[in-house]
Amino acid sequence: MTKQQLCKRYGIHLGLTMFAAMLLLPILTPYLLAQGFVVSQIAIAMVVMTAVIIISEVPSGALADHFGRRRLFCCSLVFALLTNLLLLIATDFVTLLIAVSCWGLNQATLSGTLNAWFVERFHEAEGEQTLNQGFAATYGLAYGIGASSAVLSALFLAFGDHLALSTLQMYQLIFVVSSIGFILLLPLTFHWVKEVKSPAQQRFKQALSQHVGTTLSTVRQPALAKLLIALVIVIPVSASIEKFWPIFVHQLEQVDMDAVAWLFPAVMAATFALNGVAAVLSAKLCTLLNQKLGQAMAVAHLLKLVALVAMALAPDLSWFVAALLLFFLCFGLTQPAQLQLQHQLCDDSVRATIESLGSLTTRMGGMLGAALTGALLNLVSLPVSWLLLGALSLLGIVLLFSPSLNQQDPPEVTEPEADPASADLNA
């Protein structure tokens, strides 16, 4: 299989995964409100979900590295299906907490699984593409498919009243369609994702000990450590805008949130489409900068701050939405470069773990952004809090210019030797 064929197949698979998830994500909060939950209960549920992700993120990556990426990905699909089914019947707080716990396990087992598989297969495939070009092609296709689901969700909510369905019934129907999507992905995964490399033959306890050693030696690399620190610093402003921009829309226009409910999935659809464009532009940016990936990320984050200033100064809704979409486009420019940089700094044996660690770092940055925004809102307005978080991100941008993050030939990661006395406990 050529690299181009692999990118197309994985892009379609990843896009279908996004399609099933993005159908319901924009309507989750209004659905829970329609089910009778109050904002405080929803906020607690989101905290529980985040806690589950943080606890299980890196261990799930270790399981994927040892037992196989496809198996963990299929587990994530099962958890996604359980989440949908539990949310459909959730009328009490306990059921809601169980549902979001399953959602957290879905997100934890999803991160680092098939991306790690893709990188390994990409290196084996025929062709001259670089890894960031491969990720650009893959995510460009995937985001296009994912965007279509958000468009369908927005159109259904905008015109669904002609079908004589209540808003709650429309939400429930979207959940059912999403669940069907996750069910269909299971056989497709077994058909398309081939586990060429079988799981290690060592017993898990010994393999885990060796795995931890390799992971620690990888994370101790100055380049990877700087990358993870930079992510924690630059992510808060993006996470804050992603979570709180609907509130700013309400403050800006003073309209009822139900009156602009269609806007939220519509913006998500546009964001996904722009992320597909950004993935292609990112590969060109990396080529322009001679594959200096840290610099490519830094330039994208600086452009993102320009869009942030435009958002903060927005006089009306149309100006704000245009600046918001530009912000998400610039943020999307960072992903292919980040993924290549992250993967070229780690060994195959811990690839899924390192990606899970990167995902965990991003989530911690997101939690930091939400917490800092909440604290700053006691002192300043929402747009001013975004500007302050944007100023904080400049520290992370400086780190991205470090020479160790801009080498064309990164240092190789060597796996620590196993204890000869226990090298093969199955012998």
From TrEMBL:
GO terms for molecular function: transmembrane transporter activity. SUPFAM superfamilies: MFS general substrate transporter. The chain crosses the membrane at residues 12-33, 39-60, 72-90, 96-119, 140-159, 171-193, 223-241, 261-281, 293-313, 383-401. Keywords: Membrane, Transmembrane, Transmembrane helix. It is found in: Membrane. Residues 1-408 form the Major facilitator superfamily (MFS) profile domain. It is a multi-pass membrane protein. Gene3D superfamilies: MFS general substrate transporter like domains. InterPro entries: MFS, MFS_DHA3_Transporter, MFS_dom, MFS_trans_sf, Sugar_transporter_CS. It comes from the Bacteria. GO terms for cellular component: membrane. PROSITE patterns: MFS (PS50850), SUGAR_TRANSPORT_1 (PS00216). Residues 408-427 are annotated as: Disordered. PANTHER family: PERMEASE, MAJOR FACILITATOR SUPERFAMILY-RELATED (PTHR23530:SF1), TRANSPORT PROTEIN-RELATED (PTHR23530). This is MFS transporter. The lineage of its organism: Bacteria, Pseudomonadati, Pseudomonadota, Gammaproteobacteria, Alteromonadales.
